[in-house]
Give the backbone structure.
Amino acid sequence: MNREAARRKAEALVAQMTVEEAAMQLSYQAPAIPRLGVPSYNWWNESLHGVARAGAATMFPQSIAMAATFSTELMREMGEVCAEEGRAKYNAAQRHGDHDIYKGLTFWSPNVNIFRDPRWGRGQETLGEDPCLTSRMGCAFVEGLQGDGETLKAAGCAKHFAVHSGPESLRHEFDAKASPKDMEETYLPAFRALIQEAGVEAVMGAYNRTNGEVCCASPALQALLRSWGFEGHFLSDCWAIRDFHESHHVTANGAESAAEAINNGCDLNCGCTYEHSLIAAWQAGLVSEETIRASAVRLFTTRYRLGIMGEGSPYDSIPYEVVECDAHLQKAEDAARRACVLLKNDGMLPLDPEKLRTVGVIGPNADNRRALTGNYHGTASRYITIQEGLQDALRGKARVLCSEGCHLFLDKLSELSQFQDDRLAEAVTVAEHSDAVVLVVGMDETMEGEQGDTGNEYGSEDKRDLLLPPSQRRLMDAVLTVGKPTVIVLMTGSAIDLADAGENANAVLMAWYPGAQGGKAVADLLLGKASPSGKLPVTFYHNAQLQEMPAFTDYSLQGRTYRYFRGEPLYPFGYGLTYGDVRVTEASAAKTDGGITVTAALRNDGARGTEDVLQVYAQNEDSSNAPLHPRLVAFRRVAVPAGEAVTVEVTVPEEALLVVNEQGQRVAEGKPVLYVGMNQPDGRSEKLTGHACIKIAWPQS
């Protein structure tokens, strides 16, 4: 049902409700109204990288890993799988009268906040540090999730609006101050794109304040949303409205907080403030009946658009059998292969199974299922760790020796051990007896993530620095000292500086949190069944460079992300090696109806075919308002056979050649130029890849 028809039905229904009944519908646990035939509905569901928290479901790589694919097609497919499995699970739950949390069709994904600081624990949930990449990938996910019919297959939600990226420990009280330029240039573009291009059905407010206003009751932010044409519903982050009086101290009590939120556009409360205080606010004259009914209409418009108000939908017949079906599992596995980023390779990779007798698999993440999942994950019926993936792939060909080596962050694995590093001797022994070593290190959701997810010395929130814990650093040093060919497989959701270990290893593969099928995907890459082809969606800094960056609480972009960082990074945004050698040999640009069409000739001079990512960056020379470095404006993943050439076209929106001034206005300024290549047009990328981008002046003379 289209929005106009759904709204008319919603208005007619809400008109029959008492004020009290309408107010109760604004809680995420909306109760049934039997006299009107309204079923209960729980709005809270998650599908960040697969349907989450509701039992078995296909698990894709974590969002930051999906961003590393630079593939809008893969993101759209992931959204489609989430919608398909979400509908199947919803249909089954309805038949059994189960209306509980995580059983609905309103998915609070994607997270399109900008990963501006490498310490942020929730950065793994995002699509990286760049507004163009985040916008394109976020739109593709929403389009796949919501479908292209008049009835929504599922409802997406752009979160967390706005200017939210840590610190986690301060999020309930923090005021994120951002300039008009940074707002327009960095923090807002993805939200605008999801609304205007993908038609996202919902927007979630952030916990923090932005420029003095609480995000879940911000007149300024609401005005932006409506100016962009947003017609869906707005919801609070969970228990964020309670923060108004308990942490931000902008109100005195629950009734005032409820009034502040709903009077400033917050339709749905994830939390209990509306449930316990909204009627009291209405009775005290703080909220009008019209305001309550308007929010209820917006919410029921979404429910009618989903076809879940008794009228039926084309998706009611989706069977439960689609959950974790072979086709969906294959898509997740393919995504994991394309997400891994080869950061270093001196020729060790790919390993040749025919020449190996013994492979050592060492490290705390080698057989760690949690390191596959990231946060906001579902439950897979089968997990394949990297250790298991290599064992399966090498069965009958080579012996696989294993050692956990160390704890993720504690000094020893056994509490009864008298000394630290109680598995180090075993790890060294395994390395000594191996022809090649796969050293699997990193983190998991117990070490980086959302505030309060788990408890340990790391707080499961933000990182303190960019180094791995001492236990893992000692393990890496000891194993590398043995001198066997060693690849480090790094499993984290964010940038890590491997320091000396990264220099001494023969190869480094960034595997992220690759999903339930991740071990098989990584084994395929290490053994050459496929070529790595992911690109970094975030900058990897040297740990010492944190001292050069603004304070974590400073939301200015100056000094951070690839567009404004002044130093030489460890590994740049957009960087990633393959087993081929793809470069751009020619490039041109022409004005077309859709914008600027860039045509690039790509050639693979390597001995192996591979996928790679064509990247187009723009800069405005002689402009005082342009970012310090060229910015990503278009990209496309492409397959290039060994020794062959292909021609690729991408479209750059004309607006991408404008710059943002200090007043937050987009203006034509300076001399626009485009850079076309397989990486960023910076010195470090050129040094690491051996290839420079082709520069095109625009307009071409």
Q: What stands out?
A: The chain has three domains: 3-319, 331-538, 582-697. Residues 582-697 form a domain with the Immunoglobulin-like fold (CATH 2.60.40.10).
